Amino acid sequence: MASTYIQLPAITISSATIATSARQDLQPLATQLPTTLGIKTAAASLSIAPASDAVFSTTPAALTGSFQEILNLTNSAQTFTAPASVKWCKIYADDTNVANIRVKLGGTATTTSGMQFMPGRSEDFLLSGDISVITESADTNQKINVHFGV
Q: 0.85 cut: is pTM over it?
């Protein structure tokens, strides 16, 4: 099949026509921009920076803590009960321990299941709940403590 071509007349556009068209297209946007730079009220500002009349809390919410410890941990699982509204916790395995400790958040630790805490290890967790702990061996009187942040 043969192609058919249609010849169109040449179009001449002046730079003045382009400028006028651009001005017409950009005029609605320009009315939304502030006419000067600097701090403005919320109603007169763009949302690229906080408004001068914005209200921010400059005092952080008070944090409270709850400290719990087990001084006689054995190879029988024990549980730290998290306080209501807990946000985080820090778990410490005492550096005088002679056995590794297994720790599990949201489940029951066993001698082979859970995060392993060697003597002296500590970890921060940004979420928390009840914490199960157990020693990996029959060694008694291992020490572990938890600081809950509310």
A: no
Domain that holds residue 79: 65-149
Tokens of 130: 């009840």
- The answer to whether residue 19 sits within a structural domain is no
Classified as helix, coil or strand, 22 is: helix
Q: How far apart are CA 28 and CA 132, in angstroms?
A: 63
For 111, residues 6+ apart whose C-beta sits below 8 A from its C-beta are 75, 102, 134, 135, 136, 137
Write out pLDDT tens, residues 104-137.
Answer: 998 999 999 999 999 999 999 987 789 999 999 9
Tokens 């946000």 belong to residue: 87
Structure tokens that stand for 48 in this block: 């690229």
